[in-house]
Amino acid sequence: MQFNPEYLPYLAGEKQSAGLKMKMARTGQHMGERVDVLCSAMRGRSVIHVGCLDHVPLIEPRIKADIWLHKRLTDVASHCLGIDINVEGIALADRLGYGNIVRCDIVEDAPHAEITARRWDYMLLGEVLEHVDNPVLFLRSIATKYAGCVDRLLLTVPNAFHLDNLFGAFRHVEKINTDHRFWFTPYTLAKVADSAGLRTVEYQLCLHKPNVPKRRILYRGLLRLFPLMRGSLIMELAFR
User: Domain total for the chain?
Assistant: First the structure.
């Protein structure tokens, strides 16, 4: 899904509104789960997977359950290179048969030779941006270092409008990963990207958790009818 052209001047800062009501299409959205949607998009592509390890104790159980994103990407991509700073996790992944991960701080370190040595279709930052202190500077640094060898960025973040957040608010509860700094919406994520010198190509909303129980008929029905309440926001960005 793409932004209506009438909203682009607001993203670029050319126009301003204290109460913009941005209409979003109900169609063209995925009822699939985030990992499935990403793997479908990356099939046959060359991809750099930034922050690929997840929490180290969860790697083996998620491999066995076939829900570890880096395993799934490695299975479907034409070429997949993982990037992470966790040396312990990289060693574990290597022992488990995933030696396609290198240690690199994507912002602080100089451009990594294994990235700059070839042309890549995508750099995927899955559930990363909400953890960083300054998302604009983070994305701008990536663009400065890697625009010459990567065609597109693909971001995934938790959706601020997630139905679970609404249910929590009714109970006076905020449920959150304690390392998160931000909640994002389609507009605010696109605004951050624009400020970093990137252009939004398209976005979509999908399920965050796998296998929402079918017995939760009302819950699934609401997510089907109201895509903006789904848990994950995926956005494709181009370098300018």
Answer: 1
